[in-house]
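REQUEST FORM: STRUCTURE PREDICTION
Request ID: SP-0412
Submitted by: Lab K.M.
Chain count: 1
Length (residues): 229
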Amino acid sequence: MADRDSFEQSPYELPPGSTEVVLVRHGASEAAVVGNKFPLVDGHSDPALSEPGRSQARNVAARLAGEDISGLFVTNLRRTQETAAPLVEATGIEPTVIGELREVYLGDFEGGEYRIRSGRGDPIIKRVFEEERWDAIPNGESWEDFGARLSAGVAKIVASVGPQTTAVAIVHGAVIGQLCRQATSSRPFAFVHSDNCSISRLVVLDDRRWLLRTFNDISHLTVKTGPAG
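STATUS: Completed
RESULT:
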């Protein structure tokens, strides 16, 4: 590099050998109704998107369709797959399922029970947020188990798309919260408040350290919902 005396600011570029993972929270899902449990997939609640959620999915697809996307990833839960559908249509990229990135396991509060109890101000839900741990819910998933499987999921994405690329992963609220926590060494629930179809950007460096670039961008949304449930 030639000697120079002037050094201007320049746009951000991915560091050599790194991979950008664009984290999109799924769109709003259908309402939890007392006495009518959500279906379960591998023990996890599996509601469909609501009409606002489908609108949000179209918004986020329009926002991301012009980016140079090397891979699209979803979980085994249909709200992520339904959120991905407009982006699949816009780009022609078929999504890959990464089961490790499914939502935190809510134990006895699966099936919509968590959202109902949260809406009613249940004392166990209050304890979850006071203690900042999901396993305050009976049979809920611990931070250690949750974090380990998410790290494995991110590693699968990076291995699939390779360095100097951008991947889009449509995931869940607690997943985004935990990944941001791991990137920043924050307190456990510092990032659990992402909105439906928000965009957060994670960079995985070539030495496997993580960098959080943005969190909860919702400038593209015309319908805003979240974060609970």
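NOTES: Residues 19-103+142-217 form a domain with the Rossmann fold fold (CATH 3.40.50.1240).
Reviewed by: T.R.
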